[in-house]
Amino acid sequence: MLREASLRVTVPRLAVLSAVHGHPHADTDSIIGVVRAHLGGVSHQAVYDVLRALTAAGLVRRIQPAGSVARYEARVGDNHHHVVCRSCGAISDVDCAVGYTPCLTAADDSGYEIGEAEVIYWGRCPACAAATSATK
Ligand SMILES: [Zn+2]
Ligand SMILES: [Zn+2]
Questions:
Q1: Is 70 in a helix, a strand, or coil?
Q2: Which has more confidence, 77 or 61?
Q3: Separation of 81 CA from ligand 1 center, angstroms?
Q4: CB of 84 within 8 A of CB of 121?
């Protein structure tokens, strides 16, 4: 993947990319934790720099729901969306509402060339919904 994106293959890049693959929607701190567990002393700055390079190359997608820190995922290019739990911040993937990327066909595009539609559904995850109904 790194070579296809014409990025030099380095140990930190491989470690960060595999951490993002293994932990979808992880924030920077969790990714640093995973990378350190494999590589030992990697600086925060090194991980930030690698995340920025991978995001710029399109290998990693950065999402940031309102009120959340930035999170990263390796599922890119399919215009999928996210559902976020208002209580605990859990995030899951949601495919485009119907069929293949219909959201990219805006009802009125005002003349813009549209390349991406970012939709966030807000609600409560199953665990939080169950916890609430149990206390009622
Ligand atoms: Zn929740
Ligand atoms: Zn996702």
A1: coil
A2: 61
A3: 17
A4: yes
pLDDT (tens digit per residue) in 5-34: 888 999 999 999 999 999 999 999 999 999
Neighbours of 59 (CB within 10 A): 21
Residue 92 has what DSSP assignment?
E
Name the amino acid, one letter, at 66: A
**Ligand number with the minimum distance to the CA of 132:** 1
Q: How far is the CA of 135 from the centre of ligand 1 (A)?
A: 15
**15 CA to middle of ligand 1, Å?**
29
Alpha-helical (H) ranges within 84-135 are 126-135
User: In the sheet that 71-73 helps form, which strands lie side by side, from edge to edge?
Assistant: 26-27, 71-73, 61-63
Which residue, among 115, 56, 67, has the nearest Cα to 91 in the 3D structure? 67
Other Cβ atoms less than 10 A from the Cβ of 92: the count is: 14
Do the beta carbons of residue 5 and residue 58 sit within 8 Å? yes
Q: Is 78 helix (H, G, I), strand (E, B) or coil?
A: coil
Q: How much is the pTM?
A: 0.81
What spacing in Å lies between the alpha carbon of 116 and ligand 2's midpoint? 14
CA of 86 from ligand 1 middle (Å) equals: 7
